[in-house]
Design goal:
The chain is α+β, with helices and mostly antiparallel strands. The chain has two domains: 75 residues, no CATH class; 49 residues, no CATH class. Helices cover 45% and strands 18% of the residues. A hairpin with a 6-residue loop joins strand 1 and strand 2. Helix 1 packs antiparallel against helix 2. The longest helix has 24 residues.
């Protein structure tokens, strides 16, 4: 199966190449992934339900002293009731977005967009020398490699 990649900045497309460490991503292309870990809403709901059940049972006990004595037993009982569900529900969810870009040296707007993101994050800006593209002898060694 041939995978076609589309540059998120320019709309340029390229077919995937030989499979490498990043899959069949075309040579020189970037795969940019934004991943964020958040609490799983289902896990949060289970915690809230357990707390509400414990409070409901404790509120049915008339004396405050008796409530304190029974709190541990009731909590353990509710925990046991939801142990399987809680154990099969991950605490965190990962929200992941992936985009692809053509090589930054293929269009100035890609390089500008990359540097607009890299610099505020404390990364060195990318730059490409025009001489590398014109000099075939040296370009073979440095082809596609950013200059810092």
């Amino acid at each position: 199966m041939i995978t076609t990649y589309e540059c998120a900045i320019t709309g340029l497309t390229a077919e995937g190449g030989e499979s490498g460490p990043m899959g069949p991503l075309p040579a020189g292309w970037f795969k940019v992934t934004f991943a964020r870990q958040v609490l799983n809403p289902k896990w949060v709901a289970i915690q809230q339900l357990k707390e509400a059940m414990i409070n409901n049972v404790l509120n049915q006990i008339p004396k405050a002293e008796d409530r304190m004595i029974q709190q541990v037993a009731i909590s353990l009982q509710v925990e046991a009731q939801y142990a399987a569900l809680e154990g099969s529900t991950p605490k965190f969810s990962v929200i992941e977005e992936t985009i692809y870009t053509a090589p930054p040296e293929s269009a100035g707007e890609i390089l500008e967009a990359f540097n607009a993101v890299r610099e505020p994050l404390g990364l060195e800006p990318l730059s490409y020398d025009q001489e590398d593209e014109e000099d075939d002898g040296e370009a073979a060694d440095d082809e596609g490699k950013p200059k810092s």
